[in-house]
Specification:
With 441 residues, the chain is of the alpha+beta class. Helix content is 20%, strand content 26%. It starts with 31 loop residues before the first strand and ends in a 5-residue tail after the last strand.
């Protein structure tokens, strides 16, 4: 995707909060989500984040801020999910985003500013919903560093499965338990085989974990039986969010022989409310390549454009806020930090692999990247890696506590942003979830 005026790092908005250094939502970002005023009976509708405000796109469509294709796109965003907007495709996405950029720019005419100013809702006064109606959710497993770290716990002599370096591995997840950031969830119940035991037990998860991931939403789908070739994939990807694929490791490791994840994964998946568009991410695309001494992608998973700019350099971090952090009023502790650029497969390759057999993706479908871990120990994207399967305690300097896995009352916070010299910093906001005790305990 080529750069355009919306990527100009010198661009500024008439909304002062959008110009504050370090904001996640400057005028160069303009992510989309679904919201309403907190505690109200208003209908959820599409919005766009700018500074500390939300542009109510339904209100903007009614006010006549836009015309032509941007107006049609804003009307599509007036619905309770973004599915209809996503189905319109990249020409409509870009038209609305660029119209919003022009209307929010400091050089916008006074009439436009007046109209749009009346469509602003403070983010602090809003509540969010999952941005799309998700018919299907698929979670990938595409970090070779995560695969090796976890593989060493369960298969010390052979940590990497033979297929990992040949295909983007995935499993079909549970769409009904995808929730928006800030939604608490109960520790899951399930069956596990304790160490040295021969009979499994049923009870609350004893090895609850998070997974640092990104999610991406499908725009136009594909017909059943018609794969999406690698060089056409990005016409089908709307944008990226933060995603936490909560995992019950004791349940997961017991039930995964011989099939894939089931109860260990289906109790909750958290997503951030804002979706950063692929257009906004254009300055942060990076080259992709497998190491020369490792298997190279087969022809259908290889293309010049994917090699040239298939990666995305998103900086990521995981923070942990325990009940003691909140009681003492101290800041959460950072557990790890890494970048999505280390992922072994690109999002385009994930989509092509997903559809090569004829699977028909639908507008609003959510795909997870799998845990994102970097090459060094502090870049691990899950607590099972940091604690080496629970054998090493993780110290929390803020409270003096230790963790091997998550405890009730823990709030996990994911953050993501992009920054580099010569480009405006843009952010993803936060994705967080609070662990509640298992039901009945």
């Amino acid at each position: 995707m080529k750069l355009n005026p919306t990527h100009d790092p010198q661009a500024r908005s008439w909304l002062a909060a959008a110009n504050v250094e370090g904001t996640d939502f400057p005028i160069q970002n303009l992510p989309f989500g679904v919201f309403r005023r907190a505690g109200s009976n208003e209908a959820f509708r599409g919005g766009m984040a700018i500074g500390d405000q939300i542009v109510d796109l339904a209100a903007a469509a009614r006010a006549g801020v836009f015309d032509g294709l941007p107006q049609l796109a804003a009307q599509a965003c007036s619905e309770s999910t973004l599915n209809a907007f996503l189905a319109m495709g990249p020409v409509a996405w870009r038209a609305l985003r660029q119209a919003l950029f022009a209307a929010l720019h400091r050089d916008a005419d006074a009439q436009t500013v007046g109209l749009l100013h009346g469509c602003l809702v403070p983010q602090a006064e809003a509540e969010h919903a999952v941005p799309t109606r998700i018919a299907n959710y698929t979670d990938f497993y595409t970090s070779i560093h995560h695969a090796r770290n976890v593989g060493r716990i369960v298969r010390p002599d052979d940590p990497l499965t033979p297929n990992f370096q040949w295909i983007p591995i995935a499993y079909h997840g549970r769409a009904s338990s995808v929730v928006v950031s800030g939604t608490p969830f109960h520790r899951p119940m399930g069956q596990a085989l304790p160490p040295s035991a021969v009979v499994p037990v049923v009870g609350p998860c004893a090895r609850l974990d998070y997974e640092l991931e990104l999610g991406f939403y499908i725009g136009p789908g594909n017909a059943m039986g018609e794969p999406i070739p690698l060089d056409k994939v990005e016409d089908h990807i709307f944008g990226i969010c933060l995603l936490n694929d909560w995992s019950a490791r004791d349940h997961q490791f017991w039930e995964m022989a011989p099939l894939g994840p089931f109860l260990g994964k289906n109790f909750c998946t958290s997503v951030s409310p804002w979706v950063v568009t692929m257009e906004a991410l254009a300055p942060y695309r990076v080259p992709f390549a497998h190491p020369a001494d490792e298997p190279q992608p087969l022809a259908y998973l290889d293309a010049a454009a994917n090699r040239d700019h298939g990666g995305v350099d998103v900086q990521l971090e995981v923070l942990l806020e325990t009940a003691q952090h909140r009681a003492k009023g101290v800041a959460p502790d950072r557990l790890s930090a890494t970048s999505f650029r280390h992922q072994y497969w690109t999002i385009a390759q994930m989509v092509t692999q997903h559809t090569v057999g004829g699977c028909n993706l639908q507008s609003g479908d959510l795909l997870g990247t799998g845990t994102i871990s970097g090459p060094t120990a502090p870049e691990a994207g899950a607590i099972v890696e940091l604690s080496r399967g629970g054998t090493v305690a993780i110290n929390l300097p803020g409270t003096g506590e230790e963790r091997r896995f998550l405890e009730d009352g823990d709030n996990v916070i994911l953050r993501g942003w992009c920054e580099k010299p010569g480009a405006a910093r843009i952010g993803f906001g936060r994705c967080e979830g609070l662990v509640l005790p298992a039901v009945g305990t």
